[in-house]
Structures are given as structure tokens and as C-alpha cells.
Design brief:
It holds the Pfam family TUDOR. Its main location: cytoplasm. The chain is α+β, with helices and mostly antiparallel strands. It is built from 14 helices and 32 strands. It has five domains: 43 residues, no CATH class; 184 residues, OB fold (Dihydrolipoamide Acetyltransferase, E2P) (Beta Barrel); 146 residues, Beta Barrel (OB fold (Dihydrolipoamide Acetyltransferase, E2P)), CATH 2.40.50.90; 134 residues, Beta Barrel (OB fold (Dihydrolipoamide Acetyltransferase, E2P)), CATH 2.40.50; 88 residues, SH3 type barrels (Roll), CATH 2.30.30.140.
Length: 666
């Protein structure tokens, strides 16, 4: 057989022992590859697998996808790079499928056990990986397809080794015998999982690429079969029902809150990192999965600078790790808020120290454990100007309307581009290179020819280019409202929001153009702000129009530049777009040539009033309200604006002042 003088005959070989059969089959295969004697003119069949040579690497396991697939962060690729994480499918073995909840596919028997077996042994561990072959598979079910077939994707397969000894079946895991020319580095993970009965060995065709340790895998499988382990046993896999609260209603999540309050610290497993500060957690004790977010800490949102770095850091630190959580409350979307520890380390501190998160002061600091440590971590990142603090400017002392402190605070140099009602306005950062970059991209576009009717049908939420009526220039905009169905006339009207300036306008279809993805990719530059610590009436309320006009006079019409000291961030507006929606920065706004803040000036004219005080207010907020109080007192004494008839009846924060009676028909 080895010398090509004989052929392997399946029916008679079946009478032999497995080991002897395997040796004969291997001998024939080697003779075929070397084209010896009777195999001189042998042509191997086409195969969709291809060998991978010289692609060995070391790294840390960051995710176990299933019993036969893991994700490893390559040590040779810079930390945080999207290329650092490599998906490795274990060579020549197949484990039960984990299913897909989105398609209502339930996990196969022992799929959860196989995944958990690898999670507890590999997550966070350093491994050696030997890539062996790639194989093209169909996109739907992973079945093999011809190499030239459309929509085929390549899967890379390799052998993974734990450098240290791992116990298997009560003894040291069996050592695989490496083939000539290869070098083994520890315990073969594929052999380990097959020996536990959590996977089977794939029977490859003669010329298909396979694991370099294929014989050892077959031996491990034989032991599992004889021992009736896992999928080879007659027993059913243990049943486990998990209540997924991430897909349930917010009311159901709130109803579950008392169960999470029974213990102060609750063991959990991080199932997935949804964002830098948001995770999906499994609570084994309560057999449920929840959406969880840090209290008072926020990372950049998706597509914002350093968002990917924050996610990469959390994947390396806590993905699929055993953690402890302390739940405080649940928000209106059904996300539980609290603190999370891994190996007794508060992971919010890790994010803040790396400059990948900010404290959100709208949360009550007295409810957050280790809050003083969170503040120290943020201050440390600010001093070093790490990541999101790279352009941070140390706060200056602002008199007459801002807390006077020497501590650092985020201060932005801005110009006001639009004023809304209720004390809200849009700003652009002064000197922001993104503005010039976008305008340069627009200057190269040919936008003279109007689009053909029917070829371009913008709908609500679409990004477009729009001709601004005042200066006849093109700007990026988003459609806020428009006609239903296809466009019928060039005079059809569309309401658009200019994402780089904050203003809104109704324009005809003839003033719209489709936008290139390269131009629309950058986020909008205009930032929605409000005046911190004061309440300004809305346009439909008494003195609402006067307040908006005076705010415009102080800011938009003055042509001045301002220092905006960020006091709080309100993200309750979510990701909604359009004028007056989205995340809001509550700021103290001071012109660069002024000694009084715009906040104080609005109070002084009686066109705003101080926010209600609460006994749990932070010291900084109390001091700011104390500094602004004399300006409100002056307006009250002089009967200015809303104080013209004396004191205003106090109301709760969420209750607006009495509005003027609407005119028109009753």
C-alpha cells in the first residue's frame, strides 16, 4: 500500500480493527499524493478546501462562539484594531449548533454544554493557534459549495493549544502526536472537547485538508463513544429555559427589578458587549438575560470617535467573563442600571481611566458605589488628555453665573448657529476641521442638473444635499417630512434639517440632490445645547417668543464666539434626529469678551427662572444655583419680564408655566 502496489478495499477493511483500517487508508492516501506505481496518472478530485501555511500566532481568547468556534485577539496586531480579533474554527471537528434566536432556532442538544465547557476553560486565556486550512461554505447553513459559487464565504480552520496542562476526564488531557515538521504547544482544545463527548470528528474525503492532529482526534472520539459521554450517551441533555428580558417589554423588565434587589451583589456572565458601557448579561440564579448599563458613565456612541476602542477594551476585559453586578434601577427602555465588577475591579473605573468614557452628572452620585473613585479616574484621564479628552481645555473661572472652582471641566469654544424655543440652541465648535472637510467635498460635486422624477425619491430619515435659500449654497440635510409615495412634481415640498447647522427649512424637490455615501458618512456637526440651571419658556408659553428673540440677540445675531462649559449631558433624547431632538449638552455660555454668562443675562431680564433645588443635588449644582440666584432676585425686584406681576407660583420641574389661551374657533 505505501509503495503504490495495492488499493484499499472498503468492504474487507471493515473486518479489521479501527486502528489498522486507519493505517491502511493513510498509506494509500500518501501513495496517491506521491503518485507511486499504480497511482502514477492519478488525478485528485476537486475540493473546496485549501491549505494554510505558516500562519501560526498567539493571542488571548475573547469570545467562544460555539463549541467549535472561538475568537482570538492576535498579540501581533495593535490593541484596539478591528483586525486584531480573528475567528478560528477548530479543525476537523463539528459540535452541536447553538441555534439562532432571531430565526427561532433552538440550540441543539449539548450545544450550550459544549460552549460553556470552552468558555470556562478558554476565556481570557493565552493560546497558541496553528492555522491549517480554509474552506468555502454556503452563506446560509455552512454547507460546502463549489469554490466558484457566488456568495460563498471562506472559513479558516486551525488547531488551538492551551500552553498549560488542562485536566480532562479526571486525568491530564492526552497529548496529540504531531506530524513530522509540526510542533505542538500544549493541550489540543479540539481533542479536549471531542474527548468530553461535545463534538464529533468530520470524516473528510481523501484529498480534503484536515487537522494535522486528525488521528489523535479520532482516538479521542473513540474514547468518548466507549465511555458514552455527552452526545454519545443515551441521556437527554439537561433542559435549561432562559427568560430573555432584552427582547421583552420595559414593563416586564421593571416587574423583574425586585428579584434583582434581593441580593446586593449578584453573580452574572457577560454574554455580549453591545457598546462600551452597555452589555447583555446572563443571571444564572434567576435564569434570565438582561440589558445592563453603567450608572452615571457613558462611552461614545457608535460611529463616534473612540467608540470602537471602548468596545474592544470591554471585549478584552469582560466578554463572557464571570462578573458581579449591583442593580440600582431600570430605565424607560428596560435597561437595568448599576455597577459591575470583574475580579473585584469596578469596570467603569477601567473605562474612565482609559479616557474612553465620561461621568454623566445627571445621575445621583450618592447612589453610585465607588463614585469618588470614578471621579478620580476621570480626572486622571483629563490630566493626561487621553482619547476623548485629547482636545480638553482646562476650565477657566467664570464669574456671575457659573460655579467658581479650580477643578477641571470640559469647556468648548463654539459659535451659535441656530436658536430654538425653551432656551435650546445649536452650536458649532470653532475651528473644527470637519466643517472645512465637508465643504471641500461638496465643492467637488456637480450639482447643477436636477434629478429625474422617479429616479430619486427621498423619504423621511434619508440624507440628502439641499440648496439653502439664503446663500444659494449646498449643505448636508436630513429629510424630516415629505409627501407620501413617489415624487410627482419638482414643486413637491420637503421639510429638511441641516445636520451641520441645526436649522430647519421647507424646500421644493428641485432643491434636493442625492448624496454620495462618502459625504454623508461623517456625523452631523451641529450640537444641540440648553442653558444649564435655568428654565426658559417655550415659544407657545408666556414670554416664550421674547425669550427666544433675546437669546438670538445675545448669541446668533451678535456674531461672537463663546465658551461653553458643559455642566450636564442629557441623552434621554436617544438617537432621534431633526430640529430640537437628540442628546443635549446643558452648558454655561459666556461670550469671550463678556464677564456675565448668557444664563445670568436671561435671568436678569426676567426671561428665565432658576431650576428647582433638590436636597440630593451635587455640591457643584448647589453652588451654581447660588451664583445665579442674585440675577433672578434683581429681575424679581425690578418686575422684569415674567416677574411683572410679582412672584410666579412655583411648580414642579416637569410642569410648564401657564400658557396663553389659544385663539381661533372653540
Amino acid at each position: 500500500m505505501e509503495n503504490g502496489f495495492a488499493k484499499y478495499v472498503e468492504w474487507s477493511a471493515n473486518m479489521m480493527e479501527e486502528e489498522a483500517k486507519r493505517k491502511l487508508k493513510t498509506s494509500e492516501l500518501q501513495a496517491k499524493k506521491n503518485r507511486l506505481k499504480i497511482w502514477t496518472n492519478y488525478v485528485p478530485p476537486a475540493t473546496n478546501s485549501k491549505a494554510i501555511h505558516d500562519q501560526n500566532f498567539t493571542g488571548k481568547v475573547v469570545e467562544v462562539v460555539s463549541g467549535d468556534c472561538i475568537i482570538v485577539a492576535d498579540d501581533s496586531i495593535p490593541y484596539g484594531s478591528p483586525l486584531a480579533e480573528r475567528r478560528v474554527n477548530l479543525s476537523s471537528i463539528r459540535c452541536p449548533k447553538v441555534g439562532n434566536p432571531r430565526r427561532d432556532e433552538k440550540p441543539a442538544p449539548y450545544a450550550r454544554e459544549a460552549k460553556e465547557f470552552l468558555r470556562t476553560r478558554l476565556i481570557g486565556r493565552q493560546v497558541n493557534v496553528q492555522m491549517e486550512y480554509s474552506r468555502k461554505v454556503g452563506p446560509a447553513d455552512g454547507s460546502a459549495v463549489p469554490s466558484g459559487a457566488p456568495e460563498a464565504r471562506a472559513m479558516d480552520f486551525g488547531s488551538v493549544f492551551l500552553p498549560s496542562t488542562v485536566k480532562a476526564d479526571g486525568v491530564d488531557a492526552p497529548s496529540s502526536v504531531p506530524p513530522a515538521g509540526s510542533q505542538q504547544n500544549g493541550v489540543n482544545v479540539g481533542e479536549l472537547i471531542v474527548s468530553r463527548g461535545f463534538g464529533t470528528v468530520i470524516r473528510h474525503r481523501d484529498f480534503e485538508e484536515r487537522s494535522n492532529y486528525y488521528d489523535a482526534l479520532l482516538t479521542a472520539e473513540s474514547r468518548a463513544i466507549s465511555g458514552k459521554k455527552g452526545i454519545h450517551s443515551a441521556k437527554d441533555s439537561p433542559a435549561m429555559h432562559i427568560t430573555d428580558l432584552t427582547t421583552a417589554s420595559a414593563k416586564k423588565a421593571k416587574d423583574f427589578l425586585p428579584f434583582l434587589h434581593r441580593s446586593r451583589k449578584i453573580p452574572a456572565v457577560v454574554e455580549y458587549v453591545l457598546g462600551g458601557h452597555r452589555f447583555k448579561l446572563l443571571i444564572p440564579k434567576e435564569t434570565c438575560s438582561i440589558a445592563f448599563s453603567f450608572s452615571g458613565v457613558r462611552c461614545p456612541g457608535r460611529d463616534e470617535p473612540y467608540s470602537d476602542e471602548a468596545i474592544a477594551l470591554m471585549r478584552r476585559k469582560i466578554m463572557q467573563r464571570d462578573v458581579e453586578i449591583e442593580v440600582e434601577t431600570v430605565d424607560r427602555t428596560g435597561t437595568f442600571l448599576g455597577s459591575l465588577w470583574e475580579s473585584r475591579t469596578n469596570m467603569a473605573i477601567t473605562l474612565l481611566e482609559a479616557g474612553l468614557a465620561k461621568l454623566q452628572t445627571s445621575f445621583g452620585s450618592d447612589r453610585i458605589p465607588d463614585f469618588h473613585l470614578l471621579e478620580q479616574a476621570e480626572q486622571s484621564a483629563k490630566k493626561q488628555k487621553l482619547k476623548i479628552w485629547e482636545n480638553y481645555v482646562e476650565g477657566e473661572e467664570v464669574s456671575n453665573g457659573a460655579p467658581v472652582e479650580n477643578k477641571q471641566q470640559e469647556v468648548l469654544k463654539v459659535s451659535v448657529t441656530e436658536v430654538l424655543g425653551g432656551g435650546k440652541f445649536y452650536v458649532q465648535p470653532v475651528g473644527d476641521q470637519r466643517i472645512a472637510s465637508v465643504q471641500q467635498q461638496l465643492s467637488f460635486l456637480n450639482l447643477q442638473e436636477a434629478p429625474l422624477l422617479g429616479a430619486f425619491n427621498p423619504k423621511k430619515g434619508d440624507m440628502v444635499l439641499c440648496l439653502f435659500g439664503a446663500d444659494k449654497s449646498w449643505y448636508r440635510a436630513m429629510v424630516v417630512n415629505g409627501p407620501r409615495g413617489p415624487v410627482e412634481s419638482s414643486n413637491d415640498m420637503f421639510e429638511v434639517f441641516y445636520i451641520d447647522y441645526g436649522n430647519q427649512e421647507v424646500v421644493p424637490y428641485s432643491q434636493l440632490r442625492p448624496i454620495d455615501p462618502s459625504v454623508s458618512a461623517a456625523p452631523g456637526i451641529a450640537q444641540l445645547c440648553s442653558l444649564a440651571y435655568v428654565k426658559v419658556p417655550n415659544l407657545e408659553e408666556d414670554f416664550g417668543e421674547e425669550a427666544a428673540e433675546y437669546l438670538s440677540e445675545l448669541t446668533l445675531n451678535s456674531g461672537k464666539e463663546f465658551r461653553a462649559k458643559v455642566e450636564e449631558r442629557d441623552t434621554s433624547g436617544g438617537k432621534a434626529k431633526g430640529q430640537g431632538t437628540g442628546p443635549v449638552l446643558a452648558v454655561t455660555l459666556v461670550a469671550v469678551d463678556s464677564d456675565i454668562s448668557v444664563n445670568a443675562a436671561m435671568l436678569q431680564e426676567g426671561l428665565a427662572r432658576l431650576e428647582k433645588r433638590n436636597r440630593w443635588d451635587r455640591k457643584e449644582r448647589q453652588q451654581a444655583l447660588d451664583n445665579l440666584d442674585p440675577f433672578q432676585g434683581e429681575a424679581r425686584t425690578n418686575r422684569c419680564g415674567m416677574w411683572q406681576y410679582g412672584d410666579i407660583q412655583s411648580d414642579d420641574e416637569d410642569t410648564a408655566p401657564p400658557a396663553r389661551k389659544a385663539g381661533g374657533r372653540k
